[in-house]
Automatic annotation (TrEMBL):
Family statement: Belongs to the ProQ family.
Protein name: RNA chaperone ProQ
A Pfam family this chain is assigned to: ProQ
Organism per entry: Shewanella ulleungensis
Cleavable signal peptide: none
Function (record text): RNA chaperone with significant RNA binding, RNA strand exchange and RNA duplexing activities.
Gene label: proQ
Entries under SMART domains matching the protein: ProQ
Length: 206
């Protein structure tokens, strides 16, 4: 059966959103600006979901939209999208300006923090005299050995059974787990990370 434990870790909630709304929340690479008022749509869509609370959803949404990856995607020509990935309006210039200013401020803070953490008055390394240059000796490098590629195939519903090891498509990298329950086309999988999720059979790889 599906776990009813509430998710409290923000990263776990984001992983859940990546899986539940893959056309809206993008796990890796360039993101797209979200529809204004998306939180209300999200709260309504997950109203009967015992895994997440409105408070935790708000925290996860704030982290997603304040990431550098998201702020870089708020740019001229980009279209806002809803939970199903449908375009729903262009960005206004003030929103673009605000995102770029926020990104610049965040990057400057991170740079200042790194500089503050750097060891102060570090002893200077003694300058070594350059050795006379010698003609480089060419060494034959061995040809690289290609690592074996494990090809995962999409699973078929009739092939799945409980306690079976599978891989679930989450973002770019499949995540291993174990099938805990099968309800029509919905498959409940407990990931090796401890998170239990419900996915469609087309997201299962063998």
């Amino acid at each position: 059966m599906e776990s009813t434990d509430k998710l409290t870790d923000t990263n776990a909630i984001l992983a859940y959103l990546y899986e539940t709304f893959p056309l809206c929340f993008i796990a890796e690479g360039e993101t797209k600006p979200l529809k204004i008022g998306l939180f209300q749509d999200l709260a309504e869509r997950l109203a009967d979901d015992s895994k997440v609370s409105k408070t935790q959803l708000r925290v996860a949404l704030r982290r997603y939209t304040s990431s550098w990856r998201y702020l870089k995607g708020v740019k001229a020509g980009a279209k806002r999208i809803d939970l199903d990935g449908n375009e729903c309006g262009e960005l206004e210039q003030e929103h673009i300006d605000h995102a770029q200013a926020t990104l610049k401020e965040s990057q400057e803070k991170a740079k200042a923090k790194r500089q503050a953490q750097a060891p102060k008055n570090a002893p200077k390394k003694p300058v070594k005299k350059a050795a006379p240059k010698r003609a480089p000796v060419k060494k034959e490098r061995p040809a690289p050995v290609a690592a074996p590629v494990v090809k995962l195939e999409p699973a078929k519903l009739e092939e799945l059974k409980q306690k079976q090891r599978v891989n679930v498509k989450l973002g770019a990298t499949p995540v291993p787990g174990v099938v805990t329950d099968i309800n029509k086309e919905d498959v409940h999988v407990q990931l090796d990370t401890g998170l239990t999720i419900k996915v469609r059979v087309e997201h299962i790889l063998l």
